[in-house]
Amino acid sequence: MRKLFIIALVLVIVLVPSFFIAEKFFPAEIYIAKSLLTDISENSFPYSKNESNKANCDLTLLAENGSVLNDSLLLINENHPLPENYSPELIDLGGVYINSCAEESYHNLADDIKDLYGNSIYIMSAFRSREEQTEILESGNEYAASVDSSEHLSGLAIDVYVKYYAGMGFLDSEEGQFVNSFCQDYGFIIRYPYYGEEITGIPFEPWHLRYVGLPHSKIIAENNLTLEEYIELYIPEEIYYYEDYFISRQKPGNIFIPEDFSEIVISPDNTGYYFITGKQ
Length: 280
Ligand SMILES: [Zn+2]
Prior knowledge:
By secondary structure, this protein is an alpha+beta fold. It is built from nine helices and 13 strands. The protein has one domain (about 20-280): Muramoyl-pentapeptide Carboxypeptidase, domain 2.
């Protein structure tokens, strides 16, 4: 009888938290992104895409005029490796380097976690050079991507942990659950989500954050997408609206930027197009 009681108790201890986590990470309601994006594109377009609105623009010049040119939407995978001459703009976060475009968002996320739980979040690995990635591959790490297909080469990927909770164990911490539930509010996505292995080819990595910026991170998370699927949803040269944002994916050269939007961010997507994001 006592044995039975102990078994029941163990089952309750093990099953109740896992049910809670499952509830948190497998939302019942799944939106279909395609229709969401179509709805956005069907909003009235106050801006006509006529030639006078288009400037045969020089991307460096645009960057000087207050637009930001960054790497935030680079698709990096085995089919889309980074060019050999690629080298990101990095910021030193006390010995680890991240892509400068992710710095502010990372600080906001880390500060909020500290305020909420009193604990610091740490970076296990962020930017990795070609040499470092080669060493990891040679050591037989099953998670490591081939050299030019590694998001770590861009500094946009940040592997995080909290004290005592790293790797899959990160999800057993409140901080890890917070990161996995809300990182999209800060411009990050879980790049290899539990639902994405068939598409990314990489199993769930709850510790590997990838900066994509707002509102892209929110759309991806709200619709249970992978970055691969997200980028493909955009019909080139079409204009999409999401909340206060303007998004379009355009060929380099003639880039269309509506005048009434500010905070313009331009990022190549590593598939031959540029993402233009603006805020009203
Ligand atoms: Zn990683």
